[in-house]
Write a structure and sequence with these properties.
heterodimer; A: 458 residues; alpha+beta; Cytochrome-c3 Hydrogenase, chain B; three-stranded antiparallel beta sheet; B: 248 residues; alpha/beta; two-stranded antiparallel sheet; globular; Ni-dep_hyd_lsu (chain A); magnesium (chain A)
Chain lengths: 458, 248
């Protein structure tokens, strides 16, 4: 077993030299620093006797953002959590606000939740476009960059979708990256539904661009690598993105509550990775666009559902990019629909409720009389994202973030082994490229993953 | 001219800001420069080798042994090094956060983790473009200046200046520990404009005066330790200078 401690994180120091059984292992494939992914990572495949093992290295340095939050006022959580990731910052800040609100017993009103969902959708759309257009599609086509794509109109269409979804986030969030408008309790600034409609109609006018882009991705030829494993996604009345109080569904048909999910997660230290890997019930689980589509595709919006029906969905990680493409259309449809519901709403600023409600001036933390625990789970671009916090006297006592990439790490390794077994006749050099494509299809985010750093306790 | 865009330990939010906010103009960068290294946009020329360039833009803080090696290679191969964003210019949250952690508690096989430092702790930096994230407009302006042989400049005003221009209500007056008077402007007062206090995510302003600031917040009944804890969040290494001046 190469997994150091195999689930026991208490002393990851125990077996420094891997299995210790004395078998000589030889590195047969090494991607070096993975190209075109978020953060710094590397994949190594080893052969020991007849056994093939893969190691997914996170080389990104830890920034200790979650341990920094300990002892800080609860309302600082969204601001700091946002800095976990430059691609899905809105997911982190909204999850943080929600986890803290649950712990403090604060319930934001319906329009706030609806607008957060819109922000979530816009961020997922932006992240998917960034991943598909810049990172995943060009190398699968054998190109060194998106700018080498022959279909210039496709690049222009994709860029427009990317810029417009970024503008939406900027308009509602107060800045394009690390939005300050998401605060504990709601939103910091007044938002008028009518103003939202203007930016949404700009996005709606790009439906043709989205069709062109989605169809292109759906027609791509991808390697076949079906392998059964546990898949997890949020389960809601609508196609899951962001929903309060929703259970999770597993591909064996069972459901778990958010609390059960967190209890079933296990943090595992790997001697080659700055981030811990996260196991579900002692083994692997895959989260992300493919899990969402396989478990919830009946709930997709009409046009996205039509696209989804064109594909024969199987548990092949390469299909994750097609699943993301279908979601691009779904998110666009969903934003337009949600915008219509919000068109008459006026959301007044209700963040920082301690100000002006009779509490002593500047006496932070705002919630000095409150304690509790909170969990927030939502479907971030790369999969199920979970923030869990404990608050005592308005100060954060413990803060943990389980990111999709940390959960998927084990699956990335197992799929790499499977790929090497099946495609070995291709030979090292070619295999290396397919292996990199495989890792990229997971859309890994190593800056996110490292928020559960190898030095964190528990 | 040759340029390169590197990323050390960070959230990569600065480089993604450039990609999304430059939008259709991103490709234009390639018409001006030969860009051999920009990991999120193209496969690097020459693999992991650091190319020789005229201008290198570097986001992220120096945290691991790999970061340390990388930044010295970048310096050795680049005529002009620009620190991109607050992680690179100040160390950002990681600067304080990493100082409260027992870094020797566990060891990894190939990676060593150190206390986070801005680029300037390890190499000479020619210009710093702060911001969490960096602003695409400021980046463009700095780039145009460099192309024309003019020295780029950082904003020489505080967040308060831009906040007043936007007609916002002063957050100090409602009792929030806003760092606007101490903070370097250029962000368009993004946070105070949505009612959230400024955390000085671009580091201290040129004219930052901690003594005067503490006097002001005392007048507004805001606890001093609350404000000082906020100053420590983003300003990273630059807090040291500020504190020295303030207490000095």
């Amino acid at each position: 077993m190469r997994d150091s401690g195999n689930g026991k994180t208490a002393d990851g120091n125990g077996n420094k030299n891997g299995n210790g059984s004395g078998t000589v292992s030889e590195v047969i494939l090494d991607t070096n620093e993975l190209r075109l992914i978020e953060g710094h990572g590397r994949l190594k495949v080893r052969l020991s006797g007849n056994r093939i093992d893969a190691e997914f290295h996170n080389l990104e340095g830890p920034r200790f953002l979650t341990s920094y939050l300990r002892g800080k006022p609860a309302e600082m959580a969204p601001l700091v959590a946002s800095r976990i990731c430059g691609l899905c910052y809105t997911a982190h800040s909204i999850n943080a606000a929600e986890a803290v609100e649950e712990a403090l017993g604060v319930t934001p009103d319906g329009d706030v939740v609806e607008l957060r969902r819109l922000l979530y959708l816009a961020n997922n759309l932006r992240s998917h476009m960034m991943h598909l257009l810049f990172l995943s599609v060009p190398p699968i086509k054998g190109l060194i960059s998106v700018f080498r794509l022959r279909e210039k109109d496709l690049v222009a269409a994709g860029t427009r979708l990317l810029s417009t979804s970024t503008q939406l986030i900027e308009h509602w969030g107060g800045r394009s990256v690390h939005v300050p408008n998401v605060v504990v309790g709601g939103f910091g600034a007044l938002i008028r539904g009518r103003e939202l409609m203007e930016s949404i109609s700009r996005l709606e006018s790009l439906r043709g661009d989205a069709r062109k882009f989605v169809e292109h991705v759906l027609e791509m030829e991808l390697p076949e690598l079906e392998r059964f494993r546990t898949m997890i996604s949020l389960k809601a009345d609508a196609y899951p993105t962001y929903a309060r109080e929703a259970p999770l569904i597993i591909n064996d048909g069972s459901t778990v509550t958010d609390e059960e999910y967190v209890n079933d997660l296990e943090e595992v230290v790997k001697e080659y990775s700055t981030s811990k890997h996260v196991y579900f019930r002692g083994s692997e689980a895959t989260v992300g666009a493919l899990s969402r589509i396989m478990l919830n595709r009946r709930r997709l919006n009409p046009e996205a559902r039509d696209y989804a029906e064109r594909i024969e969905w199987r548990i092949n990680p390469f299909l994750m990019i097609k699943a993301q493409a279908v979601e691009v259309m779904h998110y666009l449809e969903e934003i337009v629909e949600a915008g219509e519901r919000l068109s008459d709403a006026t959301i007044s600023p209700n963040g920082y409720p301690c100000v002006g409600n009779g509490k002593e001036r500047g006496a932070d933390p705002c919630f000095s009389d409150r304690s509790g625990k909170g969990i927030a789970i939502a479907e971030a671009p790369r999969g199920t994202l979970c923030h869990a916090c404990e608050i005592e006297g308005g100060l954060i006592k413990d803060y943990r973030v389980y990111t999709p990439t940390a959960v998927n790490s084990k699956s990335i390794e197992m799929d790499s082994v499977e790929l090497v077994k099946r495609f070995r006749p291709l030979g090292g050099e070619k295999l290396k490229y397919v292996l990199e494509d495989l890792v990229r299809c997971y859309d890994p985010c190593l800056s996110c993953a490292v928020s559960l750093d190898f030095l964190s306790d528990r | 001219m040759k340029a390169a865009f590197y990323s050390l330990t960070s959230c990569e939010g600065c480089l993604t800001t450039l990609i999304t906010n430059l939008g259709p103009n991103l490709e234009a960068l390639w018409r001006i420069f030969d860009i051999d290294y920009f990991k999120l946009v193209r496969e690097p020329v020459g693999g992991e080798k650091v190319p020789r360039v005229d201008i290198a833009f570097v986001e992220g803080a120096v945290v691991t042994n790999l970061d340390r090696k990388r930044i010295s290679q970048i310096r050795a191969n680049s005529s002009f090094v620009v620190a991109l964003g607050t992680c690179a210019s100040c160390g950002n949250i990681a600067y304080s956060a990493s100082r409260g952690v027992d870094l020797k508690r566990r060891r990894l096989r190939e990676i060593e983790v150190f206390e986070a430092e801005p680029l300037s702790s390890h190499v000479n930096v020619d210009f710093e473009l702060s911001g969490c994230p960096v602003s695409a407009e400021e980046f463009t302006e700095a780039l145009l200046r460099l192309l024309n042989g003019i020295e780029p400049k950082q904003p020489d005003f505080s967040v308060c200046y831009e906040c007043k221009m936007r007609g916002n209500r002063c957050l100090l007056e409602v009792g929030k520990a806003c760092l606007g008077p101490l903070a370097m402007g250029g962000c368009g007062a993004a946070c105070p404009s949505v009612g959230a206090p400024c955390y000085s995510c671009r580091g201290p302003a040129v004219e930052a005066d901690l003594t005067a600031y503490l006097k002001t917040i005392r007048r507004h009944g805001i606890p001093e330790e609350r404000a000082l804890s906020a100053v420590r969040a983003f300003t990273g290494k630059k807090i040291l200078g500020l504190l020295k001046d303030g207490k000095g």
